[in-house]
Amino acid sequence: MTKSANPPLNDEKWLQFLKYAAKSFNEVTLSRGFQYFKQQHVVALNITENRTVQAKVTGHEDYTVTLQLDQLGSSFCTCPVHTCCKHQVAVMMELADRLGYPAAQIVNAKQHLARTAATPSAESLLQELAPMSVSDWHEYMNQATSLVKPSYDQGIYVQALRVPLASLLKGSAPSATADLIYFELHQFLFILQKIFDLVAGGSPVINFSYATYRLYDEAHAFLQQTAPQFNCTMDADRLEQTLSILRRQLAEESGHKYLGYGLYAAVWKYWIAPQPEAGYWVSQELSAVETQIAECDSSSLAAAKAFLLLHQSKSSEAWTALEAGGTLDKAPASLLLSYMDLLSSSGQWGTLADWLNRSAPHFYGPVTKERSTYFGFWKEAARHLPEAEKLLWNVLEEMLPHSAKVIENMLYERHNWKAWIETQILLEHDPFHHKVSVLQPIEKEAPELLLPYYHQAVEHYVALKNRKDYKAAVKLMKRLAKVYKKMKQIERWDSFFSRFMERHSRLRALHEELKKGKLLE
Fold first, then answer.
1. How far is CA 146 from the centre of its chain?
2. How many CB atoms lie within 10 A of CB 331?
3. pLDDT < 70 stretches in the chain
4. Which residue(s) pair with 65 in the sheet?
5. How far, rounded to the nearest angstrom, does the alpha carbon of residue 408 sit from its chain's CA centroid?
6. What is the C-alpha separation between 118 and 138, in angstroms, rounded?
7. From CA 234, how far away is CA 241, in angstroms rounded?
């Protein structure tokens, strides 16, 4: 697609785009065009300098669509319908998607235009929201999205919900910072609740996990970005109501993904925990969680209770809460890491080592991102608490063979060169397994430890008896000579080399490579 100083679409042109779609296409054509767009039937699209879009659309037959961006009514297609066809709709959506505009709005162009016309100014809206409760906000958002129809594709559904919500506070006034921060968080919570309701209603969904995970990630990022602006004293009622909604979503969360719990923990991590009043809020929230657990058996609520107990440094009670709720039985690694993160950030090193040791079975198996983070916490605990080192090595031993790489890295980080080289020999990693820079610190600090490592590798390559491996053996022998020289033991090198030549006197190709390597005259 060629670039132009005059962009193909801007907000004003996009509005014209939607008006054209609402006026020129019926619902059936829009729906069929949307399917073509989703199925990626638009295989080529180009914008000419005179703002004409030309695109190829595949199907039972291949057709060419021409969009005149400045005169949309003059657009046409080579299909039998010729104009206002599903191929044209698919191209319009493809163009919108590539230029960052929501293609789904074209499907519901009439409804979107109606919502836009009814949208109040941001300033008047904020004044309207201020006296409302959080529950009223959710009802308000429900009305704003009333024309959005559920979709089997949750990615499309989420996008369609976000369009009217995003326009609500566009250009909002800085004077309403507190309400604005809370309201933006509740937009995430509202959309998540809509998804929960859809799934609970038995609706088949597509891309549920992808759309939901992405939404949670965005909510986490929002909490982190707004943390410097947050203050518990801004509006205590808003915070209490927000926590109540979060608890309700925890109670409704099914399965063992703990996405809702993760968002709940993030609210505490970024917004509440750094505040001077955090202790008060922990006590109050713990009481509310325990009351809700009595009414609803939820593993996510049990996870939240354990999290709050750790905030109060009640480690044993927190672990018991997880066991009592059956949460530990199917706890994913991500859940346990949230506790490690809390213990690390609060400097509870003894408790951190204890929880890392207890939760070790959840991290057995192949390398994962979560397991790498787990061992990162172990290293941090060992730095602050020397007695944790022994526990760490016990866990590493129990995890073998999956922990071999971690052991190898830790030995290297600690400059335990002897054990590291023994591990390389055990794993059958010859010196060529590493970059030269990896071995340089050993050569500098403990060159004598490299001797058996190099000698074994040399004998291995010579035993293979082919030209390629002879060359490898010679390279290692040059390194070996360098080590002996660094140790000021040239006599030992000469003695070894003499015996080596005697043992391999009949290997003519080896001799030739030794001469090329200037080890032999």
1. 32
2. 18
3. 1-6, 115-129, 168-177, 201-209, 325
4. 55, 77
5. 27
6. 18
7. 13
